[in-house]
From TrEMBL:
SUPFAM superfamilies: Ribosomal proteins S24e, L23 and L15e
NCBIfam families: PRK05738.1-3, PRK05738.2-4, PRK05738.2-5, PRK05738.3-2
GO terms for cellular component: ribonucleoprotein complex; ribosome
Family: Belongs to the universal ribosomal protein uL23 family.
GO biological process: translation
Keyword vocabulary terms for this entry: Ribonucleoprotein, Ribosomal protein, RNA-binding, rRNA-binding
Taxonomic lineage of the native organism: Bacteria, Bacillati, Bacillota, Clostridia, Neomoorellales
Matching HAMAP family: Ribosomal_uL23_B (MF_01369_B)
GO MF terms held by the record: rRNA binding; structural constituent of ribosome
Protein name, UniProt field: Large ribosomal subunit protein uL23
Pfam family, one: Ribosomal_L23
Function: One of the early assembly proteins it binds 23S rRNA. One of the proteins that surrounds the polypeptide exit tunnel on the outside of the ribosome. Forms the main docking site for trigger factor binding to the ribosome.
Amino acid sequence: MRSPHEVLIKPVITEKSMALKEDNKYTFIVDKNANKIEIKKAVEELFNVKVLKVNTMNLKGKKKRMGRFEGKTPDRKKAIVTLKPGDKIDLFEEL
């Protein structure tokens, strides 16, 4: 099994994800090969909270151009984690 630091890449800090925080939902960019069970275990182990639900979505990269050269931003996977009422992740509370 992979370590939690390999599964969770970074938190998503946007206006929309901060609004979800009020409903006890936290958003993370996760490894593309991670499943919901691995994501749940990683969050519970790293932050000592109880996870009720995990929603995932695969995001396609956008096409970008630099002059005549065309490229693409990488594909990524995002997970929205719902916690038990009363639990909080301190990483998000400082913002």
